[in-house]
Amino acid sequence: MLVAIHQPNFLPWLGWFDKLARADVFILLDTVAHQHTGSNYTNRVKILAQGEPRWITVPVIRGRAERSRIDRLCVAGTGGWRRKLRATIEQSYAKAPFFDDAMTIVDSALGAETELLCELNLIALGAIAAALGLGCRRMLRASTIAAGGAAESTGTDRLVALVRSVGGDAYLAGHGADGYQEDEKFAAAGIAVEYQRYAVPSYRQLRSGAFIPGLSAIDALMNLGGEAASLVGRHVHAPAD
Q1: Do 36 and 67 meet the contact criterion of CB atoms below 8 Å apart?
Q2: Angle between the 217-224 and 99-110 helix axes, to the nearest 10 degrees?
Q3: Which of 4, 114, 131, 143 is 20 to 30 A from 189, alpha carbon to alpha carbon?
Q4: How many CB atoms lie within 10 A of CB 66?
Q5: How many other C-beta atoms lie within 10 A of the C-beta of residue 141?
Q6: Residue 120 DSSP SS3
Q7: Whole-number percent of the chain with pLDDT over 70
Q8: What pLDDT, in 10s, does the model give residues 160-181?
Q9: Is 96 domain-assigned?
Q10: Per-residue DSSP letter, 158
Q11: Is 140 a domain residue?
């Protein structure tokens, strides 16, 4: 059984859902600290705004204690940021052919009556997965899994414990994992490692220039509607380095 593990990101790129499509079990890693450096933010993503890539961000509470676990992280400020973020997406994609359908996904998240970032993200993730035909995939939250030693361990040890806890015998690693992941620990536990190597196929976007990859899956849904499902899980992936 192939297991994938990833943080519950905000409106993530198509690679997130490609991993979901390929895994038998997908574990949402909500028990780790919120990352505020690097590229894998749980509270921001890029969209196209006036034809150029632009970050959109959910403001979150600052401070080490507040960021200690993703499942406890609260959004900051009043509802004003929700209106502004929605307006940015609306202005950017109002002319997209599938704007109305995709906007319902955005509204389901921004309209959620919760102050927890993770809960807000999970609503959007479920809606996007359904739109991509992945609604029946098995997603589990790490915070609900009795994984022996996972809570106390870190790095690769935590991943191994989580995979073993759901009966997995193979792990689907994401982009860049070969730079820090200790594959020998998976081997010692009898778990095979497979690397995702995903590259977004080009599709029509609301711009005249070259295709821009790495945007939120919302971009694909705005432009392609249900056809965006063909971009994940069933195509050629980028070759290994």
Answers
A1: yes
A2: 150
A3: 143
A4: 14
A5: 16
A6: helix
A7: 89
A8: 999 999 999 999 998 665 557 8
A9: yes
A10: H
A11: yes
Q: Record the tokens describing residue 210, joined without a space.
A: 């070259």
| Domain span including residue 199 | 2-231
Q: For the chain, what is the domain count? A: 1
Amino acid at site 216: S
Mean pLDDT over 13-21 rounds to 96
| Distance between CA atoms of residues 108 and 128, nearest Å | 10
Cβ burial, residue 88 (10 Å; 0-12/13-18/19+): middle
Alpha helices in 44-116 (DSSP H): 80-93, 99-110
Amino acid at 147: A
| Token pair in block for residue 152 | 């106390």
Residue 236 lies in a domain: no
Q: What is the pLDDT of residues 183-202, one digit of tens each?
A: 899 999 999 999 998 999 99
Q: In what order do the strands lie in the sheet with 25-28?
A: 138-141, 25-28, 2-6, 170-173, 192-195
Non-local (6+) Cβ contacts of 227 within 8 A are: none
Please report whether residue 239 resides in a domain: no
